[in-house]
Design brief:
- By secondary structure, the chain is α+β, with helices and mostly antiparallel strands.
- It has helices at about 15-20, 65-90, and strands at about 25-30, 35-45, 55-60.
- Among the domains are: about 20-60, no CATH class; about 65-95.
- Helices cover about 25% and strands about 20% of the residues.
- A hairpin with a 4-residue loop joins strand 1 (about 25-30) and strand 2.
Amino acid sequence: MEPNPPERHINIHFSPEDMGGKYANFANVSHSDYEFTITYARVDHEVEDDEIPGVVVSRINLSPKFMRELIDALQDNYSKWQTREGIKNLPEYGGRSDYESDDADDDDDD
């Protein structure tokens, strides 16, 4: 029986410029036969013009296999976030139900 190889760890380093990350409020996903591309942008949604201004902050190309792994990781983390947020909103934790209205006290019968 072969001994298990030692566990490998990924050691990622950031440059000081990348440490703070980039803010994006828009993403576009496209694909070809060989790869997926995710383009992240920052757009100004408050503009009333027909054309909304924006700037690309990052574009990432991924293999189909890595795209599947990314989707799984996003789903897992989003599920954990939803659970945590749901617990915060339980009455016993002082939260309020999503079904409660902000103006529940405004019962005017005019």
